[in-house]
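Q: What does the predicted 3D structure of Orotidine 5'-phosphate decarboxylase look like?
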Amino acid sequence: MPEAARAPFGARLAAAMDDLGPLCVGIDPHSALLAAWGLGDDVVGLREFSLRVVDAVGGRVAAVKPQAAFYERHGSAGVAVLEETIAAARAAGTLCIVDAKRGDIGSTMGAYAEAFLRDGSPLAGDALTVSPYLGFGSLTPAAELAAQTGRGLFVLCLTSNKEGFEVQHARTADGVTLAASVAAQAAVLNAGATPLGSVGLVVGATIGDAVAATGTDLEAVNGPLLAPGVGAQGAGATELATVFGNARRQVLASSSRGVLSAGPDTAALRAAAEAAVGEARAALRG
Ligand SMILES: O=C(O)c1cc(=O)[nH]c(=O)n1[C@@H]1O[C@H](COP(=O)(O)O)[C@@H](O)[C@H]1O
């Protein structure tokens, strides 16, 4: 769809979450999962796995999120499968967040933006995960192209892994934590957008009281909050409700292995996704 015809990502995601519930299914074809599904750890297995997940959950969840690393580990043929997976999500009418966590100096970021956010690029989904830790301003080329093409960004803010605090809780010369600073800069880009801006944050569901501890104002971001860590990393309904508090209506909970481990049976995958949607809806929309 050309730029002019596509509504902004934030509006499209808000509508999908209202309609189908606040859950994203991550597509992470780990070698162990390929084996558990009876598939080879090769490009044929990767393709079968990915297309089966899209077939099972497409049109039933708000978004899917293929993790680029699991495709890149198979080389260029694996990247071609990522392209095919993105196209399959598009054909199913399901929003696709490409989880590639890109971040580089501005001029190189421009090339990443063209790869993942430009109309006509085979790697372009509906949104891209990006890292602001080369400086938030280094993301400007991606923010600009995303805005032009109706796509979105998810900027790493408070990640689900335990090492993240070293960077994210550190304070700038002004005494503000990096996480709070990232959130405030995303808020500027989302100012005035309704119902939600298109510059989201990644805030893990496993982070306990880190939102308060870092002084991060999630509500003011006025954008979606991608919350990985649900399922395999241990977070559930209680953690979602506790971590996000008043910002919970902005949250898109994300689970990969928690759903994928139900495969390869399509009905079982659907049932696992439905259960995860129910849990996320109860925690975030109840
Ligand atoms: O950006 C992400 O999606 C992400 C950020 C984060 O803080 N933590 C995190 O786990 N993720 C991704 O979310 C997925 C989690 O997978 P599961 O632990 O299997 O649900 C992986 O693809 C991670 O790379």
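A (community wiki): The structure tokens above were generated from the sequence. Strands lie at 23-27, 63-66, 95-102, 127-130, 152-158, 199-203, 225-227, 251-255. The longest strand covers residues 95-102.
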